[in-house]
Amino acid sequence: MSAPIPQQAKSKSLRACLLCSIILSPADFRKIGCPNCEDIMQLKGSPDRIAVCTTTSFEGVIAAINPESSWVARWQRTTNYARGMYAAYVKGRVPEDVEAELENKGIKYRPRDQSDLD
């Protein structure tokens, strides 16, 4: 699986998913949702959900061409994610309902803002 590579180079027009940190344009999030966590984030076709579950506040861009074998993808915990562009650091946290859903599924939420370093 791969995600579209955003055409715009201006980071202010791009958004990063707060859960997986993939970087897409708002139009791509509306059109396809999040290629990694759409079942939880439910971004497809929902501008309101995109506004609260993604952010324009991110730093660093990582291009994951072959995430399964990339040491950077292992470091970013994105080895099982779609090929695409990812933020190295994402400021913000997922909404409480998403955190609750992750907890109900037995998934430990790890913020992408480096506040949960391991």
Give an overview of the whole structure.
The protein has 118 residues and is an alpha+beta fold. It is built from five helices and five strands; from the N terminus they run ββαααββαβα. It has helices at residues 26-32, 38-41, 47-53, 71-76, 96-104; strands at 15-17, 23-24, 54-55, 58-64, 84-90. The model has no long low-confidence stretch (mean pLDDT 85).
What labels describe this entry?
single chain; 118 residues; alpha+beta; 3-stranded antiparallel beta sheet; two-stranded antiparallel sheet; 28% helix; 18% strand; globular; transcription; RPABC4/Spt4
Question: What's the topology here?
Answer:
Blueprint: E1 15-17, E2 23-24, H1 26-32, H2 38-41, H3 47-53, E3 54-55, E4 58-64, H4 71-76, E5 84-90, H5 96-104
Antiparallel strand pairs: 1-2, 1-3, 4-5
The major pleated sheet works out as:
3 strands, antiparallel
Helical coverage, percent range: 25-40%
Strand order of the largest sheet: 2-1-3
Give average pLDDT, whole number: 85
Counted by DSSP, the helix tally is: 5
Question: How far do the termini sit from each other?
Answer: 28 Å
What structural class results from the helix and strand content?
A: alpha+beta
Strand percent estimate:
15-25%
- H/E element order: EEHHHEEHEH
A few lines on this structure:
The protein has 118 residues and is of the alpha+beta class. Helix content is 28%, strand content 18%.
